[in-house]
Amino acid sequence: MKASRSLHRCLHTVFFCFLSATVLFPAVYMIFNSFMLPSEVTQYYASAMQYDGTYAMLHFIPDVFSLESFYQVFLRRPDFLVKFWNSLLMCAGILLFQGIVSTTGGYAFAKFSFPFKQVTFFVLILLMMMPLQATLVPNYIVLSFLNITDSWLSLILPAAFAPLGTFLMTQIYRGIPNETLDAARLDGASTLQILVRILLPIGKSGTISMVLLVFIEAWNMVEQPIVFLKDATQYPLSVFLVSVNTNNFSLSFVCGLLAMLPVLFLFLFFNDELVEGIEFTGIK
């Protein structure tokens, strides 16, 4: 029995080590290749740059470790850094408006009664399950009617009303006892005070998980900028990376590494809150 249990544990360890290595390999591969000289990248990945249907030879360890590509990105070619900070600013706008809509909407669905509440929430879930491509054309029609296409507002406004955040906050606030809110009302707390001083602090981990998921979705958006923006200079970093791969392949590893850092830092700093928040929502 003990030998069987040890074998079972060993197989689990090997399997998860293999799975972890498979998931982490692209990121580790990109980190090592970012320290290549541009000439070395051209030497080993020329076939990939020509898009001639042939496979590029994998080259894991650089022949010479160099910071030349980092120097090019940070000092010689400011396009990437401009897109980087612009994308962070756009994500901050999305998080601000999405946070307001999600927290107030979740509060309403969780703790208030109003006509067609269940029907509205069902439509919200239905919209959340629909693929993004199915909503691009309706969003474009509405944005064109409002005359805000070809501006960052066309990216921020639809993302602010994305249903995922409202759904998550509704599930979180439903787990908070109504007696807590009734006691606050007896003490003279207003609706806004209950939201700010009770619901948000108690559901802090869920709010953080919502913010992380919304940030990742906004940071990685590709289809929306291509459809809603006509001026390519306004494209966020997620779209700009494609042009880097096409026009300057030697810098693609560094640009990809730097684009990965904000999401990586958020997960490292708020990993516990993310797990706790997802458990809080009751999502299995």
Which features would summarize this protein structure in a list?
mainly alpha; 77% helix; 284 residues; globular; MetI-like fold; single chain; 14 helices
Rounded Rg = 24 Å
Structural class based on helices, strands and sheet pairing: mainly alpha
What does the main sheet amount to? none
Secondary structure tally: strands: 0
Instruction: Could you tell me the CATH topology label of the largest domain.
Output: MetI-like fold
Q: Percent helix among the residues?
A: over 70%
User: Can you identify the CATH superfamily of the largest domain?
Assistant: MetI-like
Any overview of this molecule?
The structure is a single chain. With 284 residues, this protein is mostly helical. The chain has helices at 2-33, 38-50, 68-76, 79-111, 117-129, 132-146, 153-160, 163-174, 178-186, 191-202, 204-219, 223-228, 237-247, 252-281. It has 2 domains: 29-66, no CATH class; 78-281, MetI-like fold (Orthogonal Bundle). It is built from 14 helices and no strands. The mean pLDDT is 82.
What would a concise description of this structure say?
This protein is mainly α. It is built from 14 helices and no strands.
Topology summary:
Layout: H1 2-33, H2 38-50, H3 68-76, H4 79-111, H5 117-129, H6 132-146, H7 153-160, H8 163-174, H9 178-186, H10 191-202, H11 204-219, H12 223-228, H13 237-247, H14 252-281
Helix pairs in contact: 1-14, 4-7, 4-8, 4-11, 4-13, 5-8, 8-11, 8-14, 11-14, 13-14
